[in-house]
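PROTEIN SPECIFICATION:
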Amino acid sequence: MNAPAVPSQFGAVAAAPSTAAARGAVSASAIWTRALQRTAGITDDQTVLLADVVDAHAACAAGAPALLADRGSLTYGALAQRSNQVARWAMDRGLKTGDTVCLMLPNSPDYLAIWLGLSRVGIVTALLNTQITGASLAHCIAIAGARIAIVDSAWLDIYRTAAPEGEIWVHGGARAGVPRLEPSIETHASGPLDEAARAGLTLRDPALLIYTSGTTGLPKAARVSHYRIRMWSEWFAGLMEATPNDRLYNCLPMYHSIGGVAAVGAMLAAGGAVVVREKFSASRFWDEVAAWDCTIFQYIGELCRYLVNQPARAMERAHRLRLCCGNGLRADIWDAFRSRFAIPRLLEFYAATEGSFSLFNVEEQPGAIGKIPGFMAHRSPVALVRFDLEAGVPARTPEGFCLRCEPGEPGEALGRLAQGEAGLSTRFEGYTNRAETEGKVLRDVFEKGDAWFRTGDLMRKDRKGFYYFVDRAGDTFRWKGENVATQEVEAVLCRYPGVREANVYGVAIPGMDGRAGMAAVVADPSIDLTALHAHLQQNLPAFARPLFLRLRGQMAVTGTFKHQKQALIGEGYDPATVADPLYLNDTERCAFVALDAALHSKIATGSPRL
């Protein structure tokens, strides 16, 4: 497929003055200061929404590109007008402040224009995950409590199966008996709204519902206020050093907080542009980045791994990227990604949609997810506490308090929840379900009456203050009395030549305590399992070496490219139900041996010795 042509009316961006060579060495403190300056004046009683920021850019540069895509682009002027039309359409449908609309569309400029327009008049948009169906989708729709749904015409049947009742408008094509959104929107005026349309609306009001991934249960709907949107937008704009000359390549799903709010919002806050791609393609990526003249790439770590595993591409170093910003770039591919593709700067971070804190690796320490500088410690109180893996909660002393981890010791990351105006930046806005909200708050942690947000993530911190992701608390398992962090085992597997992806999890064995390690691996057909076994012996302690190996053609991932584990755990290691090749780590023969029905039967009776 040929790379897309850049729309001629927008042309190429001006030479970016902030490339590594031009800007020279910028200190970490200067980058932090820029982000603090951009966010310092934002309080939740203000009335300037992200839509108003768009209006301000439209007033002085109406023709500047805001959202670029193959099938239609929007300038700042057109985005302001389109969102005003959406707002008037919503009011014409009888929607009012506090009502909710479900949105189920693929990535496109209209995706942002729709929720931005709804937000102008206080309507909350529930950003439905387009990767889920059936009962999970029905649950997401139900907890949103929406009055109206806007659904892509191609997904109408999927939506109706999950939610047969309710008012639906289709986008992107005609469907019999269902009103089309676009023609109806275009009948409304595109000029600025009068003040009465948004009377009383402030940044503390809700703007979005964004769903958790649902990897450990049904998704939860996290509340996202206008304040959070403004803070994310300005904060990322500051750390990225974003300017009107920037174009950000975004192929992450827009129903997610990073791809749909933080990355997009940062560019809109700075007056830059977002290249909106519907999906990620490893084979076309560098051609598209070059064709659209992008200067920033918003990544998820697995995307970087896919790119590193691709054969050499003609355009992979012919880009003008000055920055790649994202999360999940593991240490084992950090240097390979940066050096092979000539990336001037990496900005790795850690954050959660509903979380009370974030971490940023401004210093570019390979493998680290971030660091909190001393002058920011009061603003982002974070603690790592010892975790009781069997109980699934932080460990407590006899007096009932949690124990802080020592440097290098893994523990669950907690964020302090402050109260009042001083706690705006550490606020937990919760979910639509009160019990789920309370379940994320840990109380009486270090003293009576304190409250901390539970991330559910295990991390460690080194003596220099850098944080490193270890595992999800629910993914780490115990085997032979030891804790096995799945991400650490995955990293060792992926260092072996020929292993493209690895997904590690624990499976139960009859008569055995704990869970044994199992690795689902996407590998080259020529992979040498004998050499792989030796590699694991050399680099992992005995208890952490996967007992079972499953070779797959491809890995199942979520819409944000996280590996799905629960289905694999349920399928286990029975060759009667698993079509993929299965192997057992035979500890007596020191080799991976084919796992057939006879051997599976012996495992159930305790032979061979595991």
Observations:
- The domain at 375-471 is CATH 2.30.38.10 (Luciferase; domain 3).
- The longest helix spans residues 76-92.
- The CA atoms of residues 401 and 447 lie 7 Å apart.
- The chain has three domains: 20-353, 375-471, 475-604.
